[in-house]
């Protein structure tokens, strides 16, 4: 009976940690608990989508807080952050680095929202360890959203843009 109670309290504890992560806009949280000789619990909760590189396309959601809907607004704002990575048209980063939307400063961006692209077209550049890596379009389609900012950091697997 003691182990079942501990298991249920651990599940509740992990859920509370996940809520803390979401509410405080954290990317990672790690906790280690010791239960004496009975055992221990090591928990690491993290989110894949970093909050910094989200572009201005998400700005209208936070700009619409109405007094009666104030509690619902943070949940609505969290949904677009989690949504792009699971979108079927998401193009994700193959590496960690710095994103550049154009070939050199002052030149036009490789792609803009609404542009049609063909498979293999350069979408952007990710600089990793002083090497400029051109990121090609994995499929043909239309650029629906650009989810990163020029000069911003990007993590492996982070969504870069949506192509449908």
CATH homologous superfamily classification of the largest domain: RNA polymerase II/Efflux pump adaptor protein, barrel-sandwich hybrid domain
Instruction: Specify the helix fraction band.
Output: 10-25%
**How many distinct domains?**
2
Distance between the termini: 52 Å
By CATH, the topology of the largest domain is OB fold (Dihydrolipoamide Acetyltransferase, E2P)
CATH class wording of the largest domain: Mainly Beta
SSE pattern, N- to C-terminal? HEEHEEEEEEEE
Largest sheet: 4 strands, antiparallel
Biased composition (Low complexity): 54-85
GO molecular function, one term: acetyl-CoA carboxylase activity
InterPro entries: AcCoA_biotinCC, Biotin_BS, Biotin_Carboxyl_Carrier/Decarb, Biotin_lipoyl, Single_hybrid_motif
Protein name: Biotin carboxyl carrier protein of acetyl-CoA carboxylase
How do the helices and strands line up, and which of them pair or pack?
Layout (H helix, E strand, L loop, with lengths): L1 H22 L4 E7 L5 E7 L25 H15 L3 E3 L4 E4 L15 E2 L4 E7 L2 E6 L4 E6 L6 E2 L4 E5 L1
Antiparallel strand pairs: 1-2, 3-10, 4-6, 4-9, 5-8, 6-7, 8-10
């Amino acid at each position: 009976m003691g182990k079942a109670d501990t298991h249920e309290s651990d599940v509740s504890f992990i859920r509370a940690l996940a809520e803390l992560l979401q509410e405080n806009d954290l990317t990672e949280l790690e906790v280690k608990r010791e239960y004496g000789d009975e055992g221990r619990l090591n928990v690491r909760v993290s989110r894949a989508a970093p909050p910094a590189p989200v572009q201005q396309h998400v700005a209208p959601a936070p700009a619409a807080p109405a007094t009666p809907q104030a509690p619902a607004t943070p949940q609505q704002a969290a949904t677009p952050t989690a949504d792009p990575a699971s979108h079927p048209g998401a193009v994700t980063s193959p590496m960690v680095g710095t994103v550049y939307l154009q070939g050199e400063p002052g030149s036009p961006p490789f792609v803009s929202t609404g542009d049609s692209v063909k498979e293999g077209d350069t979408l952007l550049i990710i600089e990793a360890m002083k090497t400029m890596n051109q990121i090609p379009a994995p499929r043909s389609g239309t650029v629906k959203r650009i989810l990163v900012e020029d000069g911003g950091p990007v993590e492996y697997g982070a969504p870069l843009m949506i192509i449908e």
